[in-house]
Amino acid sequence: MALLKPVTHLAFIRASSGRSAELGARLRDLLEPSLSAPGCLSFTVQRSQADADLWLLSGSWRDQQAMTGYFESPTLQVFGELVQAQVVSSLDLHTFG
Predict the structure, then answer these.
(1) How do 88-96 and 7-15 pair as beta strands?
(2) How many Cα atoms within 13 Å fall on the side-chain side of residue 49?
(3) Sequential DSSP letters for 57-70
(4) Which ranges carry the ABM domain (predicted)?
């Protein structure tokens, strides 16, 4: 049996000018479904104290397979919507394990 190796993702998301409150509300809407996702160990949304347009979305997962399944889930369609609506100006995703 293979050992499960927990993984974490950190997404730094910058709101377009004047859209930070809207972005924050949409990101907070991800909390409940993300925490309920198979293999989710923790999930948080935080706003930068130094830059009101910068948000951090972080999640810890049981293993790479659980995180990959989450990234492929309909829950994350919100990112495509936010980019198309020009609510997000940039997104920088990092994975650690």
Answers:
(1) antiparallel
(2) 0
(3) EEEEESSHHHHHHH
(4) 7-96
Boundaries of domain holding 63: 20-96
Q: Give the residue among 43, 35, 20 at the shortest CA–CA distance from 89.
A: 20
One-letter amino acid of 6: P
Does residue 90 lie within any of the structural domains?
A: yes
Could you tell me the two tokens for 23?
């972005």
Write the pLDDT tens digit of every residue in 57-79.
Answer: 999 999 999 999 999 999 888 88
What residues does 91 pair with on adjacent strands?
Answer: 13
Q: Where is pLDDT greater, at 55 or 80? A: 55
Residue with tokens 């990234």, as numbered in its chain: 71
- 55 and 13 Cβ atoms separated by less than 8 Å: yes
Termini Cα distance of the chain = 19
Q: Domain total for the chain?
A: 1
